[in-house]
Design brief:
The chain has about 290 residues and is mainly α. The chain is built from eleven helices and no strands.
């Protein structure tokens, strides 16, 4: 077979495989959206769920998912930013650094259920915090900190070396070069990573089953005192998230209209995660164009 013919066969095979992947992904998205879109309404998005009655909503679970996501980023981002800066600019090639990198790789590949069990055994039981928002946020921060550290490190390393040389030529210290030149230039990559982590956190279920719990107590949304048990801002209350709610509905089968509620909740979850992923690309490109212009 001639080289040109072989290239044509390879192109056809690659196009065919790409088409199959797109078809499978598109079919999945279309199935979920069509099946659950008819359930979505303002009442469905804002009303609390019902355990044994039909007609429940996902309002509390939706708020819990957003709240845990925000707390996770507040815990995870400073740690990842510091570790990423250290690995990119300060760490020397030593056994300790190599061990640290190996630990990061290992944490990045850990199943979320393992992190959830750690959160249950250590945070929920050992520290006696109980199933709570903060236990879920800490568990998800542990789950995502390694990935975000790699994102920050890679974003800083990708900055043109002329930036570093320019900082030294201007008489800036290494820390001033990092904070005033490198981090601003690495912002597009860092922001993209943060948005992707936010989407991953929002859709996580396995780690939260064992840490934030599977119940969604009634809350008073007019009470913003974080120390009040009925306040939505109380970080020590149990908090069933949207992803956990979908799992619970399908596993228990106690809700009369459970399949429809699960379909609607799954559609909302899918749409929000798609928004996060699309936003990550758009924000990253926008910041890159703005900083390079």
């Amino acid at each position: 077979m001639k080289k040109e013919q072989l290239n044509k066969v390879n192109n056809v095979m690659i196009s065919l495989l790409t088409g199959i992947v797109i078809l499978l992904a598109g079919s999945f998205l279309l199935y979920v959206l069509v099946r659950g879109f008819s359930v979505i309404s303002w009442e469905f998005l804002t009303q609390p769920s019902k355990a044994f009655e039909a007609g429940g909503g996902i309002g509390i679970q939706l708020f819990n998912s957003l709240y845990i996501m925000i707390l996770t980023l507040l815990i995870c981002l400073p740690i990842a930013l510091g570790a990423g800066i250290y690995l990119a600019e300060y760490a020397k090639d030593s056994a300790v650094t190599r061990g640290f990198r190996l630990l990061i790789e290992m944490m990045s590949s850990l199943p979320s259920i393992v992190i959830g069990l750690f959160g249950y055994l250590f945070i929920v039981i050992k520290l006696d915090i109980g199933f709570s928002v903060i236990a879920g946020a800490i568990s998800l921060a542990i789950l995502n900190v390694a990935f975000l550290t790699r994102v920050v490190e890679d974003a800083i390393r990708s900055v043109d070396g002329a930036q570093r040389e320019g900082g030294i030529a201007l008489g800036l210290s290494r820390w001033e070069t990092v904070t005033k030149l490198l981090i601003p230039s690495a912002i597009p990559g860092i922001v993209t990573g943060v948005v992707l982590v936010a989407g991953r956190t929002f859709g996580e279920a396995a780690a939260l089953i064992f840490s934030s719990g599977q119940s969604a107590p009634a809350m008073d949304f007019s009470n913003w005192n974080p120390f009040d048990p009925t306040s939505p801002l109380n970080p020590f209350r149990p908090a069933e998230t949207l992803a956990v709610h979908i799992w619970k509905i399908n596993s228990e089968g106690l809700m009369p209209d459970g399949p429809m509620v699960a379909a609607g909740a799954g559609t909302v979850l899918l749409i929000i995660i798609l928004i996060f992923n699309i936003s990550a690309k758009l924000i990253g490109r926008g910041l890159e164009k703005k900083l390079s212009s």
